[in-house]
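Amino acid ABC transporter substrate-binding protein (Pseudomonas cavernicola), 264 aa
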Amino acid sequence: MKKFLATLLFSACALTGLGANAGAIDDAVKSGTLRVGMDPTYMPFEMTNKRGEIIGFEVDLLKSMAKAMGVKLELVSTSYDGIIPALLTGKFDMIGSGMTLTQERNLRLNFSEPFIVVGQTLLIRKELEGKIKSYKDLNDPQYRITSKIGTTGEMVAKKLISQAKYNGFDNEQEAVMDVVNGKADAFIYDAPYNVVAVNKAGAGKLVYLEQPFTYEPLAFGLKKGDYDSLNWINNYLHQIREDGTYERIHAKWFKNTDWLKDME
């Protein structure tokens, strides 16, 4: 009996210890700052304006989230291909960088419920208009395709268009310019980015194939086991969808193009 009681007491202490370190959200409330890792190159989710400020749809969601927590928001600029290791080593509290919730990533991270669903689309050289009608038409050794390294655009290129030659870049703009300059035939990326890039960077040399060919829920990433934080973030997302906050922020970035004037 004594051994049994000792075991119960040990278990209770262990649970108390776990409760004392509930996760990213509790830590942020205690410190007064929510630190979020992001690569600010993904229009219109997170990007840098003429004044060097990081702005965008996801940035505004995070500002609203931090306000609801009663803390300051600190954006930690991080290269996308190293963003998961940076979270796991404690350089910030969570990932908010237009990250697609994939099964592979979910093995390493916990994800919130999606805050938006997008899909991969194509920007192709204008000369290929009519000839390339879908990603399937690019699956040929004669074509050269590109995207940003470490993204689902790269994953899709290598999985669904594996016969084409692939060359990735560290950022979206370089990859798009490779197509504009005729060095690549197609750029693969999320629809919200491509719908802006075709006019902003296309210089009349790109055609946007708008039909998404993947299903990609974007979500916030946290360390494994941080269920208290997931609970809070998911409830926050439900709240802003019902009180009009989400609709207002979404309209600002997706139904209005005034923000483009503030970009370089």
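The chain has two domains: 2-117+217-262, 120-209. The first strand starts at residue 33 and ends at 38. ok done for today
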